[in-house]
Design goal:
The complex is a heterodimer of chains A (about 120) and B (about 110). With about 120 residues, chain A is mainly beta. In chain A, strands 2, 4, 5, 6, 9, 10 and 11 form a 7-stranded mixed β-sheet that branches. In chain A, strands 1-3-8-7 form a 4-stranded antiparallel β-sheet, with no helix packed on it. In chain A, a hairpin with a 2-residue loop joins strand 5 and strand 6. The termini of chain A are far apart. Chain B is an all-beta fold and about 110 residues long. Chain B is about 0% helix and about 60% strand. Classes of the chains: A mainly beta (about 120), B mainly beta (about 110).
Chain lengths: ~120, ~110
């Protein structure tokens, strides 16, 4: 059973370009979470999605960031018009069920975004 | 708003020592607590998950305890090895994971 997969592992963008980060959850997992780790800072929750639904986006910046988890295919975190402050490691996690009880989240290797 | 604090921020010990990492949280309304390990430039590896109704979990040389009422958890590592060197993260789950800043552990051979 393959783990959570993220690609690309490293992404370099110039200011103003778009960044698309992809996450394929573990087989059988229908719950996906995105977290961001800024340099010298801890991991912060961004968004929680189920198939075709955004459940909690309380950690998402109000502008330029969006996320989706379509019926088919990976979850996508999209950052429009990137700025240097978006440079960070973006981690995706998946779980078999909704938060609560024994619901372990499994993390992918992350995508390291560098904005020039 | 949930806040998670980890003490110490960094720890350097000789190989073979037993050690304790501490985690505290402000809101006891949690479903569970997870301990993770993160190696430099890498993702997170889940070590242990303790449900809110449990007091402790064990895996190999690792033992994690949870005192939900006082908002505390400890991760005990027995007979530390150089391969244990990493950042250890505590995260509480009350609908989403809230992470502490981590403890950077270095085990010297």
């Amino acid at each position: 059973n393959a783990g959570v997969m993220q690609n690309p592992r490293h992404l370099v963008r110039r200011r103003g370009q778009e960044a698309r980060l992809r996450c394929s959850p573990m087989k059988g997992h229908s719950h996906v979470y995105w977290y961001r780790q800024l340099p010298e800072e801890g991991l912060k929750f961004m968004v929680y999605l189920q198939k075709e639904n955004i459940i909690d986006e309380s950690g998402m910046p109000k502008e330029r960031f969006s996320a989706e988890f379509p019926k088919e295919g990976p979850s996508i975190l999209r950052i429009q018009q990137v700025v240097r402050g978006d440079s960070a490691a973006y981690f995706c996690a998946s779980s078999p069920g909704a938060p609560g009880g024994y619901n372990e989240q499994f993390f992918g290797p992350g995508t390291r975004l560098t904005v020039l | 708003k949930q806040e998670v604090t980890q003490i110490p921020a960094a720890l350097s010990v000789p190989e073979g020592e037993n050690l304790v990492l501490n985690c505290s949280f402000t809101d006891s309304a949690i479903y569970n607590l997870q301990w993770f390990r993160q190696d430099p430039g890498k993702g997170l590896t889940s070590l242990l998950l303790i449900q809110s109704s449990q007091r402790e979990q064990t895996s190999g040389r690792l033992n994690a305890s949870l005192d939900k009422s006082s908002g505390r958890s400890t991760l005990y590592i027995a007979a530390s090895q150089p391969g244990d060197s990493a950042t250890y993260l505590c995260a509480v789950d009350g609908n989403k994971l809230v992470f502490g800043a981590g403890t950077i552990l270095r085990v010297k051979s």
